[in-house]
Specification:
The complex is a heterodimer. Chain A is built from eight helices and no strands. By secondary structure, chain A is mainly alpha-helical. The chains are: A mainly alpha, B alpha+beta. At the A-B interface, helix 1, helix 2, helix 4, helix 5 and helix 8 of A face helix 8 and helix 12 of B.
């Protein structure tokens, strides 16, 4: 229970710290970023401190101390990241997600192929017919290659391109705007 | 708001308090961070062990049978300990003169029992001071703890030294807090990397600002533990008891009682275990029975930490009637605020109150503190880069910062190489000394100390799990099957640390398009 409570409360407070970093006026000024007002400041401070108050209310001193230690270290790590590192991290996350999606799709394709192949073999077995002539198999292979090429082209269109982030209005946009202004 | 003159004085106090003892302070803090995992390192080096062993509910018959085997003079104190390897250690001890030391010591008949089968695993007759030598595979964890507690300096000077270091850490932390005017406003301001000096200052200030509460807490509790035994008790004895240490000890721990006639019916230990488990919320790990088998027998049961708590409980029972006598205070004979304060010092300093989770948090805090000390010393030297007198100190800082981890890994290498047959209690510190000499030699010749020592540390990190396995340690598959989390976690931590030190892990490289940071305020 202590471990579970610690993880949940740390996650809530760390999320609040990440948002506080993104909207910290001094940090944005020092790094030449466009000011970003902090919305619902009471809610943000609540998310930071309420987990500790809840742990005190529950009387779980162990989880409270773990929360204090972990938030201290995590807070340092969060604050120590420069905007450039934050951007790199968010881009790496986007790239990782895209790679994961591609991998999942690839596995799906392989599974479909294995299923189709098995069905074909099963069909051959059940119908006791001879396998198709070489000409038929070459034609089937060519059709499959065309299908895969179409799939590849579609994926290329879906993949994020340089500059896409700016268009989407992420933190990078702020950089570009701030950079061009200065 | 402090005026300029006071701020200048505080900067001097802060800098000199950290610099004069900085190298030793770094050694104590870094070894302290590692020593948080002392138990786990013990399990890792032995190949496994239970994280929180408990005495099983049925031991009364075993203890009574064993008590009949030993001479009644050994009934002065009987203890039962659940060992980490799953066995029960039942000790019967008496006081007698040790011919080797010429002092009166505890001499014990020690039986190790398999609690499941009731079979006797071993039987030794030893002085308790020699007991640790029997467990050769505990040498690594004990060396790390000794290095942290007293820097391997003979008692009581080692404790004095670490106590003073704790106070120096407190002075540095408090003066740093006072002289930093924008602590809260700068709490999210990352290092700006405009120039090497400001970058170093930003790194030091940011880490110190976040770690400030725990720096003060860990420094205070550490200094307390160092001074309480080495200086506190003799001082109290001198001031309040006219120099009579025995009277002081009796006032703190209670006076021994006169021995009573032998009781025909000693209380059932099994009942006491059941009762104490219900009261404490967790089964006992250690039971001590004073004046065993007499009408004045006193049974103390020591328990682990209950869910959500941080303090270990010790309960007392009448050894003849099994009546519950109350909770044993840490200090004195009755509950007090002082006793309560002392009882929370341990968990707050060691971080051992909630298993692996709390230890991980305390380990990270220790590393963060080490980072603050190292960057502080580097900053101090960097500011005096034009002064030739500080160049030697600058090199000493670099050698200590990177050399100490290498020496610690070196002592672990020496431990594993000698574990199958050698004297681990000699070779583990010897390995540390040899590694230190090699590191100092390399560091004195290297053009870039960190670039030279960092890959060595990384390679040693990767070597240790392999060496542990090759010298007969538990394999990964065995550890997985037997659920030896300590073995798996430390192997994983070493591999991860090794890859990071060798720059083989992906890192976040800041984008080139980041705007130039603005001036600091």
């Amino acid at each position: 229970m202590t471990g579970f409570l610690s993880i949940v409360t740390i996650a809530i407070s760390v999320s609040a710290l990440v948002y506080m970093r993104a909207t910290d006026a001094k940090r944005r000024r020092v790094f030449g970023l466009k000011p970003r007002p902090r919305r619902f400041p009471l809610l943000v401070h609540g998310a930071l401190w309420l987990p500790a108050i809840a742990l005190i209310a529950f009387g779980n001193v162990a989880a409270l101390l773990i929360w204090m230690g972990a938030v201290t270290v995590a807070g340092w790590g969060i604050a120590a990241m420069t905007p450039g590192m934050v951007d790199a991290a968010s881009e790496a996350t986007v790239a990782y997600r895209a790679a994961l999606r591609a991998k999942t799709e690839h596995l799906g394709t392989l599974a479909r192929q294995a299923f189709a192949s098995g069905k074909w073999r099963l069909g051959v077995l059940l119908s006791s017919e001879q396998p198709g002539r070489p000409d038929d198999r070459v034609a089937a292979l060519e059709a499959r290659i065309a299908e895969l090429e179409a799939e590849l082209a579609r994926r290329d269109e879906d993949a994020p391109r340089p500059g896409m982030l700016e268009a989407q209005g992420t933190t990078k946009t702020n950089f570009v705007i701030a950079g061009s202004r200065s | 708001m402090l005026d300029q003159q006071r701020t200048k004085r505080l900067v001097a106090v802060h800098g000199w308090s950290g610099t004069v003892l900085g190298l030793l302070l770094y050694a104590v803090v870094l070894t302290g961070a590692v020593a948080v995992f002392a138990n786990e390192i013990g399990h890792w080096s032995k190949g496994g062990g239970q994280a929180s062993p408990k005495i099983p509910g049925v031991v009364h018959k075993t203890v009574m049978d064993l008590s009949r085997e030993v001479d009644p003079s050994f009934h002065e104190e009987v203890s039962i300990l659940a060992e980490e390897d799953g066995n029960l250690r039942v000790s019967f001890q008496r006081h007698q003169e040790n011919p080797e030391t010429g002092r009166t010591e505890d001499y014990a008949e020690i039986f190790r029992i398999d609690p499941e089968t009731g079979e006797r695993v071993s039987h030794n007759s030893v002085y308790l001071s020699e007991l640790r030598e029997l467990d050769r595979l505990a040498a690594l964890e004990r060396f790390l703890v000794d290095l942290h507690v007293r820097l391997y300096v003979p008692a009581p000077w080692g404790l004095f030294l670490t106590g003073i270091l704790g106070l120096a850490m407190m002075v540095a932390a408090v003066s740093g807090f006072l002289m930093h005017r924008h602590l809260i406003r700068d709490i999210f301001t990352a290092p700006r990397a405009r120039g090497l000096l400001s970058d170093r200052r930003d790194r030091h200030v940011l880490a110190a600002a976040w770690g400030l509460p725990f720096s003060i807490l860990l420094a205070f509790t550490g200094a307390f533990f160092s001074f309480a035994i080495s200086l506190g008790l003799p001082l109290v004895a001198m001031v309040a008891f006219g120099g009579d240490q025995q009277a002081a000890i009796e006032a703190v721990l209670g006076a021994p009682q006169e021995e009573q006639p032998v009781s025909a019916y000693p209380a059932s230990l099994d009942y006491i275990i059941l009762d104490s488990t219900e009261r404490a919320g967790v089964a006992p790990r250690f039971i001590a029975i004073e004046r065993f088998g007499t009408d004045s027998a006193l049974v103390s049961t020591s328990h682990g930490v209950a869910e959500g708590g941080i303090v270990r409980q010790t309960l007392m029972f009448d050894g003849a009637t099994r009546a519950f006598l109350g909770e044993k205070p840490t200090l004195g004979t009755s509950p007090s605020a002082g006793s309560a304060a002392v009882s929370i010092m341990g968990p707050l300093h060691f971080g051992n109150f909630a298993g692996f989770a709390s230890k991980l948090a305390w380990f990270a805090l220790g590393l963060a503190m080490s980072f603050v000390i190292a960057t502080g010393m580097q900053l101090w030297v960097f500011k005096r880069v034009d002064s030739a007198g500080w160049h030697g100190f600058g090199r000493a800082v670099e050698i200590t910062v990177w050399g100490l981890p290498v020496a610690l890994l070196g002592c672990a290498v020496a431990f594993f190489l000698t574990a199958p047959a050698g004297d681990t209690y000699w070779w583990t510190p010897a390995g540390f000394v040899i590694a230190s000499f090699i590191v100092i030699r390399i560091g004195l010749k290297a053009a870039n100390v960190s670039a030279t020592l960092r890959p060595i540390a990384g390679a040693l990190c990767l070597l240790l799990p392999l060496l542990r396995h090759l010298t007969g340690g538990t394999s990964i598959s065995e550890a997985v099957i037997e659920g030896e989390l300590a073995v798996l976690s430390i192997d994983l931590l070493l591999v991860f640390g090794g890859l990071a030190l060798l720059n083989m892990l992906p890192t976040l490289r800041p984008r080139a398009s980041v705007p130039t940071p603005g001036p600091a305020e």
